[in-house]
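Re: [help] complex structure
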Amino acid sequence: MNVQVRRFGDKEELSRAAAELFAKSAHRAVAEQGRFSALLSGGETPRRAYELLAREPLCSRIPWQGVHLFWGDERCVPATDRASNFRMARNAFLDRVPLPGAQIHPIVCDGEAEEAASRYETLLRNHFRSGDARFDLVLLGLGEDGHTASLFPGSPLLDERERWVMPSPGGHEGIMRLTLTLPALNRARLVLVLVAGAGKADVLRRVLEEPPPPRPLPAQLIAPTRGEVVWLVDRQAAALLKPDV
Ligand code: 6PG
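Output below.
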């Protein structure tokens, strides 16, 4: 597995690079296989990159007719709730791009979490029934405790090897979430992890530069079998990393 760390002066530059990579991956995937399957992250960091997808020059460069969007995790709240990752993406770009609604696949977790997880897993497995069962692009963030998606440190979900979607009660707000598991997140050609801000400096150093402890941090377990991981980090988040060689 190839891991790269790309450093940017600030979050705006990082966001622009992430949006460019989204557009480039989409263009290549649609040209090569007729569709582009991307997994979106929640949280605040990717918001600006999402906004840039709905603006020129990128918007008209993305083959939206071939794009299929999924989410790496979601809080079990209504889609109109401020905590909803789908709501954030809808406000940031989905309401302003020519992407067919049938190709937007939010995680719906409005009832019993186990049943909602099973429903989303079926949707993913059906999508990947044909062709190379990998996301072309997976976007992830990094929590200050080392979580990614809704895989939290010490969670038994980190040991899951079969299921792709599971309930995750580990959120800090006490809200039940659904999350893709490592077997699903690592089914990726390209994983982009977006990390910005001084608050992430210590955890980024631990994830990238400390040997994995007996119970690795969730973000240390992002290792696509046949793919690469690119960490997009801004100057503040990279402040404790060894100097770039
Ligand atoms: C979520 C995300 C979560 C997020 C990190 C970083 O639903 O909150 O999946 O994993 O990426 O918590 O969040 P920020 O980007 O807001 O720092």
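The mean pLDDT is 96.
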